[in-house]
Design brief:
about 350 residues; mainly beta; Immunoglobulin-like; 3 domains; about 45% strand; disordered N terminus
Length: about 350
């Protein structure tokens, strides 16, 4: 405490006003600087400061109710940052962009947090726009890691059940482009959202897939030109028809051509298409166990993803090649943005194994 008082006195004499923020032991704090971090020192051993990416510093309190301390940071542009760090059981933010910050962290400097729910019975998946390079878990009540063989999807689950105490915590993800995605985590036996996408298209980035986006765009157009060769898989509801037109395979990918027709006079804005594998038969005593699968690439014949009245849209979804286990079946579900006209259908494994091979496309 004597050193802290001396540090503050020196700063005051030299006209450097320290920047104040609060944190606790259940949530990481992330600071993103405009230049690469050259030096960082935390005044107390009760808190740690670790560089994550060149410009990002992640801070963690090792104990609750720690004493007020200081943090000093120097970046490669020669700028010196001084901070005062205090304990607060409920910090109002957990990630900050330091560019433009002078004396006080303002609302415009805060990176907004996304509220998510996790369960011990279901897995919540987070889809990021680019490759994940760091996952910071605020407390051991939460388990989180990258999805197997997928670079941009993080899976999160609770390590405790509904009968055990769960304190609000955080999971923060940093991607290869330096962006930070802070999430505040609460427990729910049945989370309202189990798939959250920060990526515009919600596409997965698989390791070892040899087809690029431009090739898949050309393949999509080629597939649509070939028309329909599957006539018995689809569903009709809300004056909407949603059906599987064709399946093609090439190298290590499989492509599904879906078509949706709107026979009503009301436009249908697509929110997203969800594909998942589930049990064919669900008993009253068993909840449906879904295994969501994520596309490598998504193509929509209307870039605005709107099906106008008495019109249709073609959708081609590319996945890493897969088959379906016995007693399970593939679902495709179309969701309306800000509406309730959701429609789904199933596709059995026998349809997938009959996929046609794509011709060579220049």
């Amino acid at each position: 405490m004597v050193f802290m008082a001396f540090h503050l006195l020196c700063l005051a004499q030299n006209g450097i006003k320290p920047i104040r923020f609060v944190m606790n032991d259940r949530k990481y704090m992330f600071l993103q600087f405009p230049s690469e971090i050259r030096y960082a020192d935390m005044g107390s051993q009760d808190l740690t400061a670790e560089k994550c990416q060149n410009t990002v510093l992640k801070l963690k309190a090792e104990i609750p109710y720690f004493d007020k301390t200081n943090l000093s940071v120097v970046t490669t542009d020669g700028k010196y940052y001084s901070f005062i760090v205090e304990y607060d059981p409920a910090p109002s933010f957990i990630a900050v962009r330091m560019e433009g910050v002078k004396d006080t962290i303002g609302v415009n400097n805060v990176i907004p947090s996304t509220n998510i729910e996790v369960s011990d019975l279901n897995t919540t998946h987070i889809i990021l726009p680019t490759k994940v390079v760091d996952i910071a878990i605020g407390h051991e009540e939460v388990i989180s890691e990258k999805a197997e063989e997928i670079d941009n999807i993080v899976k999160i689950k609770s390590a405790v059940d509904e009968n055990e105490e769960f304190f609000q915590t955080s999971v923060t993800v940093v991607t290869a482009d330096g962006n930070i995605y802070p999430m505040v985590v609460d427990y729910a036996k049945n989370p309202k959202r189990m798939s959250i996408s920060f990526a515009k298209d919600g596409n997965a980035m698989f390791q070892g897939v040899n087809v690029n986006d431009e090739n898949m765009r050309k393949m999509s157009e080629w597939i649509i030109e070939r028309g329909q060769f599957i006539n018995d898989l689809g569903n009709e509801d809300y004056k909407m028809v949603f059906q599987l037109y064709s399946i093609f395979t090439d190298q290590d990918v499989i492509a599904f051509h879906l078509r949706a027709h709107n026979s009503s006079k009301i436009d249908y804005a697509i929110d997203f298409v969800k594909a998942y594998i589930a049990d064919k038969k669900i008993t009253k005593k068993t909840a449906m166990q879904e295994e969501e699968i994520y596309p490598i690439y998504s193509y929509y014949s209307d870039a605005g993803r709107v099906i106008h009245g008495r019109d249709d849209i073609d959708i081609v979804l590319f996945y890493k090649k897969f088959t379906i286990p016995q007693k399970r079946i593939l679902y495709f579900e179309l969701f309306e943005e800000n509406g309730g006209r959701h429609i789904k259908f199933t596709a059995p494994n026998k349809a997938i194994i009959k996929a046609k091979v794509m011709d060579k496309i220049d």
